[in-house]
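stage 2 :: seqdesign
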């Protein structure tokens, strides 16, 4: 039951509390049919207690335990720990094993599709990751004591010709939508992305299928409205998970702000922008390539190079799956760029070589941009790629791998930001970076959000995309 639930609140002594929805479901409880807890934002109360659990949940959200080919041992291998240790951590922090968490995610996502879309039940079963319609029906009857179709509101008006899927992703307020949109607008690659008025659009490629999405802000509902035009319904959980990652929907922004406000220098910045989020990335390989393209040049120049790369090597999206005419191509895959005889961009040879190296490394290790180990191990692994230095590795860790403790201390924008709030000028970048890194220890495990506030404080004269990879 949620705080907004219209049902009568039970007495405290009659309540039983669980660490997660999966734990409650394992104990025999079902989601409330009135307040729809599947739409509640992820409050992330467990975050900061186990980075391994955080990484595992991110992978589960993208379907790491969906389908017969995916298993808990494989998930544990991707996280660099044993299966027994993974199960122990889940029971400790969530009160339920990984399989139960994945099952709950599938049920809640299916329930949201039933309430908010016009999809047939067969399509919903496939989209939610159920192996068959029979299994889907059995699960709902066991949990809700009724078939899935009984949960669909008969009074909802539906357009049977509508081919787009529209969902709302709730967040915990406040949310600084204007800052998020400004960030994306400045970096929107022509053909791949577009920002019009208060709307973000981009093309999508998942497992070879092409489509597009549109994201708008619904402030009064504390949610993002996501319109998806895509040919494969099985890819819906992946698309939704990536939208959540890109827009940092799951951040417990109040907890983060309270922690950072413990530093007197950061407190005024947090108060000025209480809903500032840390933008993520749509795809790890794409973010890595964009980071390399942006080395030592302006955001505008990097955006132009990105547009050339997409036009030359990206696949064209069929017009029927383009939500907006400004969208035309998807970002090229690592395989496509590795096979290309030449990239065709007017840039230094060393940077072109780094682009190739990143593509080759991605092909060798498909999990290169997935969560693995701690932040130090993540950065060290990224730096093994030729041409990737400390700054670039930290940037990729922040935006692509969603390491919320990533912190590119050598970034000029961060140095200017801390200097602006201290009322000083930047002297000696090397010493200043070391001092900033030492000072940032008290900001753990949320240094990425501290970086966002410092970049905002330093102004827009130069962003992180303009820094060199060193």
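stage 2 :: out
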């Amino acid at each position: 039951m949620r705080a907004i639930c219209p049902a009568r609140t039970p007495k405290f002594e009659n309540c039983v509390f669980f660490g997660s929805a999966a734990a409650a479901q394992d104990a025999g409880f079902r989601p409330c049919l009135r307040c729809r807890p599947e739409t509640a934002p992820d409050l992330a109360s467990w975050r900061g207690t186990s980075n391994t659990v955080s990484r595992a949940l991110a992978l589960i959200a993208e379907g790491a335990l969906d389908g017969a080919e995916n298993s808990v041992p494989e998930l544990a291998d991707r996280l660099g720990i044993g299966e027994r240790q993974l199960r122990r951590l889940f029971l400790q922090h969530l009160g339920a094993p990984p399989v139960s968490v994945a099952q709950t995610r599938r049920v809640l996502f299916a329930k949201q599709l039933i309430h908010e879309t016009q999809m047939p039940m067969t399509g919903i079963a496939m989209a939610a990751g159920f192996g068959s319609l029979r299994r889907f029906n059995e699960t709902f009857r066991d949990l809700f004591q009724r078939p899935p179709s009984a949960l669909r509101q008969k009074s909802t008006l539906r357009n049977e010709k509508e081919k787009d899927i529209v969902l709302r992703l709730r967040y915990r307020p406040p949310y600084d939508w204007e800052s998020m949109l400004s960030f994306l607008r400045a970096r929107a690659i022509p053909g791949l992305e577009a920002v019009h008025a208060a709307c973000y659009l981009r093309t999508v490629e998942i497992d070879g299928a092409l489509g597009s999405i549109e994201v708008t802000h619904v402030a009064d509902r504390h949610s993002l409205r996501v319109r998806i035009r895509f040919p494969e319904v099985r890819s819906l959980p992946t698309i939704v998970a990536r939208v959540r990652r890109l827009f940092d929907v799951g951040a417990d922004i109040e907890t983060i702000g309270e922690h950072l406000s413990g530093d007197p220098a950061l407190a005024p910045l947090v108060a000025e922008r209480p809903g500032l989020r840390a933008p993520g990335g749509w795809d790890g390989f794409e973010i890595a390539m964009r980071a390399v393209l942006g080395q030592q040049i302006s955001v505008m120049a990097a955006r132009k190079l990105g547009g050339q790369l997409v036009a030359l090597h990206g696949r064209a999206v069929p017009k029927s799956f383009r939500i907006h005419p400004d969208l035309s191509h998807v970002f090229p895959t690592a395989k496509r760029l590795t096979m290309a005889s030449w990239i065709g961009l007017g840039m230094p040879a060393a940077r072109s070589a780094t682009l190739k190296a990143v593509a080759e490394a991605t092909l060798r290790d498909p999990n290169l941009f997935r969560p693995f180990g701690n932040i130090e191990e993540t950065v060290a692994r990224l730096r093994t790629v030729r041409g990737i230095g400390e700054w670039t590795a930290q940037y990729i860790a922040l935006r692509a791998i969603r390491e919320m403790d990533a912190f590119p201390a050598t970034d000029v924008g961060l140095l200017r930001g801390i200097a602006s709030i201290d009322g000083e000028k930047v002297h000696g970048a090397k010493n200043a970076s070391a001092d900033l890194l030492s000072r940032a220890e008290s900001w753990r495990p949320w240094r990425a959000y501290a970086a966002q506030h410092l970049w905002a404080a330093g102004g827009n004269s130069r962003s992180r995309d303009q820094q060199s990879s060193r």
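stage 3 :: structure notes
- Strands lie at 165-170, 193-196, 199-206, 209-218, 223-229.
- The chain has 20 helices and five strands.
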